[in-house]
Protein backbone atom coordinates (compact mmCIF):
# COMPACT_ATOMS: atom_id res chain seq x y z
CA UNK A 1 0.00 0.00 0.00
CA UNK A 2 1.45 3.35 -1.00
CA UNK A 3 1.48 6.51 1.13
CA UNK A 4 -1.35 8.20 -0.77
CA UNK A 5 -3.63 5.22 -0.23
CA UNK A 6 -2.61 5.02 3.44
CA UNK A 7 -3.53 8.70 3.91
CA UNK A 8 -6.88 8.14 2.23
CA UNK A 9 -7.56 5.11 4.42
CA UNK A 10 -6.48 7.03 7.53
CA UNK A 11 -8.94 9.77 6.64
CA UNK A 12 -11.76 7.23 6.21
CA UNK A 13 -10.87 5.51 9.50
CA UNK A 14 -10.74 8.84 11.31
CA UNK A 15 -14.18 9.80 9.98
CA UNK A 16 -15.62 6.45 11.09
CA UNK A 17 -14.07 6.70 14.55
CA UNK A 18 -15.38 10.25 15.00
CA UNK A 19 -18.88 9.08 14.10
CA UNK A 20 -18.85 6.26 16.66
CA UNK A 21 -16.93 8.14 19.36
CA UNK A 22 -20.04 9.56 21.04
CA UNK A 23 -21.36 7.34 23.83
CA UNK A 24 -24.97 7.49 22.58
CA UNK A 25 -24.05 6.61 19.00
CA UNK A 26 -21.82 3.79 20.20
CA UNK A 27 -24.68 2.39 22.29
CA UNK A 28 -27.04 2.58 19.29
CA UNK A 29 -24.54 0.65 17.18
CA UNK A 30 -23.98 -1.94 19.93
CA UNK A 31 -27.72 -2.53 20.12
CA UNK A 32 -27.92 -2.86 16.34
CA UNK A 33 -25.07 -5.35 16.37
CA UNK A 34 -27.52 -7.81 17.94
CA UNK A 35 -30.47 -7.22 15.62
CA UNK A 36 -32.39 -4.78 13.48
CA UNK A 37 -34.45 -2.47 15.70
CA UNK A 38 -37.13 0.19 15.36
CA UNK A 39 -36.51 3.77 16.39
CA UNK A 40 -38.83 3.24 19.35
CA UNK A 41 -36.96 0.15 20.52
CA UNK A 42 -33.63 1.97 20.28
CA UNK A 43 -34.98 5.03 22.10
CA UNK A 44 -36.02 2.87 25.08
CA UNK A 45 -32.32 2.41 25.87
CA UNK A 46 -31.56 6.14 25.77
CA UNK A 47 -32.00 8.98 28.24
CA UNK A 48 -31.79 11.53 25.42
CA UNK A 49 -34.63 13.73 24.26
CA UNK A 50 -36.32 12.63 21.06
CA UNK A 51 -34.64 15.51 19.21
CA UNK A 52 -31.13 14.65 20.42
CA UNK A 53 -31.70 10.95 19.78
CA UNK A 54 -32.85 11.68 16.21
CA UNK A 55 -29.76 13.82 15.63
CA UNK A 56 -27.49 10.94 16.63
CA UNK A 57 -29.33 8.55 14.31
CA UNK A 58 -29.00 11.15 11.57
CA UNK A 59 -25.22 11.32 12.04
CA UNK A 60 -24.96 7.54 11.76
CA UNK A 61 -27.19 7.51 8.68
CA UNK A 62 -25.37 10.39 6.97
CA UNK A 63 -22.00 8.72 7.54
CA UNK A 64 -23.35 5.54 5.93
CA UNK A 65 -22.94 3.45 9.06
CA UNK A 66 -26.59 2.48 9.43
CA UNK A 67 -29.44 1.99 7.02
CA UNK A 68 -33.14 2.28 7.60
CA UNK A 69 -36.25 0.86 6.07
CA UNK A 70 -39.84 1.78 6.65
CA UNK A 71 -42.47 -0.86 7.21
CA UNK A 72 -45.94 0.42 7.87
CA UNK A 73 -45.57 3.02 10.65
CA UNK A 74 -42.20 1.73 11.88
CA UNK A 75 -38.71 2.71 10.80
CA UNK A 76 -36.19 -0.10 11.26
CA UNK A 77 -32.45 0.49 11.60
CA UNK A 78 -29.58 -1.91 11.00
CA UNK A 79 -25.83 -1.65 10.53
CA UNK A 80 -24.87 -0.96 6.93
CA UNK A 81 -21.06 -0.82 7.03
CA UNK A 82 -19.33 -4.16 7.66
CA UNK A 83 -16.25 -2.40 9.06
CA UNK A 84 -18.46 -1.08 11.87
CA UNK A 85 -19.39 -4.65 12.77
CA UNK A 86 -15.71 -5.64 13.01
CA UNK A 87 -14.88 -2.63 15.20
CA UNK A 88 -17.88 -3.22 17.47
CA UNK A 89 -17.03 -6.90 17.85
CA UNK A 90 -13.49 -5.94 18.89
CA UNK A 91 -14.78 -3.35 21.37
CA UNK A 92 -17.34 -5.82 22.71
CA UNK A 93 -14.60 -8.39 23.29
CA UNK A 94 -12.47 -5.83 25.14
CA UNK A 95 -15.14 -4.08 27.22
CA UNK A 96 -18.10 -6.46 27.46
CA UNK A 97 -16.51 -9.90 27.39
CA UNK A 98 -16.82 -12.45 30.19
CA UNK A 99 -13.70 -11.18 31.94
CA UNK A 100 -15.37 -7.76 32.35
CA UNK A 101 -18.55 -9.11 34.00
Automatic annotation (TrEMBL):
Q: Where is the HTH arsR-type domain?
A: 5-99
Which InterPro entries would you find in this protein's record?
Answer: ArsR-like_HTH, HTH_ArsR_DNA-bd_dom, Metal_resp_trans_reg, WH-like_DNA-bd_sf, WH_DNA-bd_sf
**KW Transcription regulation (keyword) present:** yes
User: Cross-referenced Gene3D superfamilies, in alphabetical order?
Assistant: Winged helix-like DNA-binding domain superfamily/Winged helix DNA-binding domain
> Which Pfam families does its entry note?
HTH_5
Q: Which UniProt keywords apply?
A: DNA-binding, Transcription, Transcription regulation
Is Endoplasmic reticulum one of the keywords? no
Q: Which NCBIfam families match?
A: HTH_metalloreg (NF033788)
The protein here is known as: Helix-turn-helix transcriptional regulator
What are the leading ranks of the lineage? Bacteria, Pseudomonadati, Pseudomonadota, Gammaproteobacteria, Thiotrichales
